Amino acid sequence: MTVQESTTAAPDAEERTSRVSADAIWRLPVTVCRITDFLGERASAALLERAVAAAYGALAPSTVDGTQVIPKVRRSRSGLLAVPELLEAIDEVLPAVERTLGISCADTEPSYGLNVHNDGDFYRAHQDTRGVGYSANRLLTFVYYLHRRPRPFLGGELRVFDVALPLDSGRAGKWEDRTWQDWEPEHDSIVFFRPTAWHEVRKVECPSGRPEDSRFAINGWLCARPALPSARDDVDPLPRTFKN
């Protein structure tokens, strides 16, 4: 057996860098935890019945950033709905979710509401937190889905966008560089992901237009509790407020 050795010199660091395309993109998948048959047939049916009753009640147009109704960005209806059985079930799986997403939800409190999407409704790409100001205390997003079966609507997928960053740090990223994963709003399923992830609700087609045929979801977050004021804060002349 003859062993041949290459006489070609290894490229130095500068040569190796120059061979990388200026358009090279890092594509980093965003982790989503999804659990099906979360509450079971009986409990999910009871919760759906309460959600349908709420859909016939006084739900308000959904807002953006908690205050603004912007139909070009978000179109759906929202309201309050007590879901103690859902919160208890989330507590049971939370340790596994924390490990998977690499986060800690110690000393948090839930904030949640019912969202109802019917024909033509959607929510454009957004983040649930921007790091400062409104919603900055959100540590974990969860979405629990409910609907009649067979599913009476089309669309309504949760689209979670991957991170796409230029390899060249001196170049700005482009939105069209992003890839994504669509998650079906399957009855009695729940998804968990970090609030910083970009995501959207795809347009819903509900031919009947009836409230009971809507895409129902319990959207919520586990939020860090506000820090208690210290003795120094007590004498601060400027008022401080906490917004959830």
Report on this model:
By secondary structure, the protein is α+β, with helices and mostly antiparallel strands. It has one domain: Jelly Rolls. It has 4 helices and 16 strands. It is globular, with a radius of gyration of 23 Å. The termini are far apart. The N terminus and C terminus are likely disordered.
Question: What is the topological layout?
Answer:
Elements: H1 13-18, E1 25-28, E2 33-35, H2 41-55, E3 60-61, E4 74-75, E5 77-79, H3 84-101, E6 108-117, E7 122-126, E8 138-146, E9 154-155, E10 158-161, E11 163-166, E12 180-183, E13 189-193, E14 199-201, E15 204-205, E16 215-224, H4 231-234
Antiparallel strand pairs: 1-11, 2-13, 3-5, 4-7, 5-6, 6-16, 7-14, 8-13, 8-16, 9-15, 10-12, 10-14
Task: Give a summary of the structure in a few sentences.
The chain contains 4 helices and 16 strands.
Characteristics:
244 residues; Jelly Rolls; 4 helices; disordered N terminus
The major β-sheet equals: 7 strands, antiparallel
CATH level-four homologous superfamily name = q2cbj1_9rhob like domain
Give me the count of strands.
16
Which architecture would the CATH scheme give at its second level?
A: Sandwich
Q: What is the 3D form?
A: globular
Binned, the helix content reads 10-25%
Domain Fe2OG dioxygenase: 108-224
Protein name: Oxygenase
Keywords: Dioxygenase, Iron, Metal-binding, Oxidoreductase, Vitamin C
Cofactor: L-ascorbate
